[in-house]
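Before relying on records like the one below, remember that each one covers exactly one chain. Contacts with other chains, cofactors or solvent are not represented anywhere in the record.
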Amino acid sequence: MHKYECPCGYVYDPIEGDVEHNVAPETAFEDLPEDWVCPLCGAEKEFFTRVD
């Protein structure tokens, strides 16, 4: 599973998930709910880029 970075600098790490927003650890970025947005700036998933 890959990490994804928002233009604001937030990095979604699938190992950690986003427990504050009901996303369990081990949730791949591709499996995030369609309405999930960056917890820092509110950007939608389409603006994130994969971090290798």
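The two ends are 10 Å apart (CA to CA).
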